[in-house]
Design goal:
The complex is a heterodimer of chains A (110) and B (112). With 110 residues, chain A is mainly β. Chain A is built from no helices and 9 strands. Chain B is globular and about 35 Å long. Classes of the chains: A mainly beta (110), B mainly beta (112).
Amino acid sequence: LAKTTQPISMDSYEGQEVNITCSHNNIATNDYITWYQQFPSQGPRFIIQGYKTKVTNEVASLFIPADRKSSTLSLPRVSLSDTAVYYCLVGDKNFNKFYFGSGTKLNVKP
Amino acid sequence: EAQVTQNPRYLITVTGKKLTVTCSQNMNHEYMSWYRQDPGLGLRQIYYSMNVEVTDKGDVPEGYKVSRKEKRNFPLILESPSPNQTSLYFCASSPPGSQPQHFGDGTRLSIL
């Protein structure tokens, strides 16, 4: 199970684009990368998942370089409500065992 | 409404008194899992179940038991709780081999 490393915290201001990078040097060929968001006292919520290159949905983009040893979650034009902890997970397609790590606490300021 | 329901949401109890935290999902998901969350440690997986009668250990299974007799329910059992099991617990479910996991609202356990 590949471990992940993320910055402990990040600060941003409303309206800015935020990029959170996750390092996963031991990612395996069959592993996918998934990001979750968690607000205080709530369960995590799925944001986005990808295998390579770029994935985009209505809330975020996920950039994965060719070597797949890292990935970057991009949140466009953040608002105060994006203040949360963001987790990067790596696992094979079966995704039975999960390693969430400590996540990145994003603080969005007015 | 699709949801994962945990009960109780809060519990204060004493060392050694057996307790069960229930988890139920209404999405007909095969996969269910339990996590604990502690400050600075993120979420750590306790047990997971790929289907009825199929369970396996996560990263921190010591002191916990689970059972999966029905697809919708996945209770977490603490036979003899200890203070180091004081934590915030989350149950989650998903289709097999798939994301996203749907999480419950959490159960905060305090063991004195």
